[in-house]
């Protein structure tokens, strides 16, 4: 690396004027990556400070390029007590990357991957483990000396260690909570700094593919001596009504200097409309004397008249700015902004009441991965996943099984969705306690966060004396930081009495799969004085476009039963939650299970496992399956038949009817096909080529099925739904011919020029008449011309496939795939072209503009357009043409 290259690596965040009290800048650019095979590991234990060696400081060539001086230890040589060794540039190969980054998803899974003997390789979907290094060189300006500088890593996979300029500065033993490090005194001002991160994914916290590397954002922050501490603003609301609300603001303020400081604290609140809330009068509480090297707590109470309330589906947010000013000489010492919502939540045994409006909890569980990105999701993709769940009718998401990303919670705040974060490790070790504290402090002011979950399926501890003691400590820690929210856990509730008092400590008892196991009422009788929630229910595995269990290719189908997948496994221990499986103990019918879960008068609601497919914990638990296929959507975000069952439950006011399978079965003319309908109508009728197949079928538990099936004839099948005797919805599917042309259906036609906006473009193939071809597997090549690029592709296949790499081509899976298109930083038209051998090419134009700074909302019409997996879908209450 040349001196010029090093000197160009300036950090705008550290070049602010001294009058700027606080800056926070994204630190995702300019990193280098090495998978670890040729990197000499730096040391954590050293004889002399700054001699961690390895790549934790400048290499020989980098030092010479800068003309920097060697340290005294280097000058004195190995005769001294310690040696500072510098690598050479050719000692290791480094690749330029941009964060977030998941190196594991870039590898190919294989059944030959080796794991620890007590860790079945199936759990992480056969993806390899390993150690990765991330390195960044940056400079700081000399005039910033004296400011406090912090690095925050939102998430590093596995066990992580961090070095700066030859100093080992910290580590973390979880992938899921932020790590903030004070690096003030170890920074070099005016000369290059070296930041090195070691991410070790050799071990795992979860039984799913967790990703590898620095897979969330990194930030660098600068503050003064007097500062609001990390996550040191806590906002709560009480006495909430549409006429008035009382807002309590609690501040934690540190003075890191030796001298006392006389200061004032003032608040500015801005209404969601942009208008300032009437000024808050200064009082004695606004003035404080901050003693040196101490932390003070300041509490303020504000009354807001006629507040705009935060509610489900409408995330009305107020903006709060906190100012800390020095009295003499007058100077702004710190300024922090935060958004909050005003809402009141009351719990009843059959739901929650938010600002007087009652609702069941219609929830889904989500893992954090998606598409070709693995776990390293851009902000826009995080938002798109949440919007997909909301589009289906979900009003709540449980984060399985860890703390969420800040971007996910902020989006839920904006859109009005409830979030249930979860503690990853159930332990009272100092590390686990700190992880819990970090999670609660981080999200306790977010209106979307409505409850805390303190563990998931800790079977060896649930109901035991030791488990009860650990849980009591975690509850105490949680309540000390946030006494306003109820506490639950992910419980596989024992049918024995709770003699150890484990569940009695909870505000809301979390239950898993009580409908699946058929003992919900029995479980309820054990907790007669407790609120109850099914925080995992459903567990139905299916594959988009597959209908019956396919053992050869490891596909579950829309007509499959869950025990087919759970029993089809190579290793007895391959399913972490179920253990020994007796199919006679299961209620294998998903429709009645979910109907009960969301209608039982003694249950507040449920979270379906899961909203979207995820990598690892595959169903079935054997190669070539690499995906947990329990989602209503696949990993490309494309809906399955199962999606329509859940949507019909979540959206009772929207008449829905969906028949399956598709109606293109060459060679099966005259044969009887299994045929079922998901609907929230009263009854349905089925026509084949205009002829009724029989009398109307009643909808029971959101499903109807022809007992003898339907004789297949090429043409079309129409399912029509009736409410109170009136036809209200229908679903028509037509027989398709040979693939003729590709179609591109973007979820948005306009992108902003931030360089971070992404369009999800659905690719499908139709015949000469425009009918969707549901069996197409053509290899599709995609290109972009203009201000943007093709980021990658995914087709939703749940078995092993090379479709994740390369990034610009993939085979269609059962007729469809998705290409992810990233807008650039310049304005203009971005042309996307998709081509396949023997099929007409498709193009679409996306407009990239700086004026388009809209929020990231997934348009809801794609799943109901004429050309999609559903053929023609007409609903009198929703005009597709108007929405399109």
Outline the structure in words:
GO terms for molecular function: hydrolase activity, hydrolyzing O-glycosyl compounds. There is one protein chain. This protein is mostly beta strands. It has 4 domains: 3-219, Jelly Rolls (Sandwich), CATH 2.60.120; 226-340, Immunoglobulin-like (Sandwich); 349-630, TIM Barrel (Alpha-Beta Barrel); 741-853, Sandwich (Immunoglobulin-like), CATH 2.60.40.10. 12% of the residues lie in helices and 33% in strands. It is built from 12 helices and 50 strands. It has a 6-stranded antiparallel sheet with strand order 3-2-4-9-6-7, with no helix packed on it. Strand 11 and strand 12 form a beta hairpin. The radius of gyration is 29 Å and the shape is globular.
Per-chain topology:
Layout (H helix, E strand, L loop, with lengths): L2 H5 L14 E5 L4 E4 L25 H7 L5 H5 L18 E3 L33 E8 L9 E6 L5 E6 L2 E6 L6 E4 L10 E8 L17 E6 L2 E13 L5 E12 L5 E10 L16 E4 L3 E12 L12 E9 L4 E10 L4 E4 L2 E4 L2 E3 L1 E6 L12 H14 L3 E4 L6 H10 L2 E3 L9 H14 L8 E5 L8 H17 L5 E4 L17 E5 L7 H6 L5 E8 L23 H6 L22 H8 L7 E5 L4 E2 L11 E2 L12 H10 L6 E4 L11 E2 L2 E4 L3 E6 L2 E2 L4 E2 L4 E3 L4 E2 L4 E8 L2 E9 L6 E6 L3 E3 L5 E9 L12 E7 L2 E7 L14 E3 L4 E8 L4 E9 L2 E11 L22 E3 L5 H4 L1
Parallel strand pairs: 21-22, 21-28, 22-23, 24-25, 26-27, 27-28, 42-49
Antiparallel strand pairs: 1-10, 2-3, 2-4, 4-9, 5-8, 5-10, 6-7, 6-9, 11-12, 12-15, 13-14, 13-16, 16-17, 18-19, 19-20, 29-30, 31-33, 32-38, 33-37, 34-35, 34-36, 34-39, 39-40, 40-50, 41-43, 43-47, 44-46, 44-48, 45-47, 48-49
Protein name: Beta-galactosidase
GO molecular function: hydrolase activity, hydrolyzing O-glycosyl compounds
Keywords: Glycosidase, Hydrolase
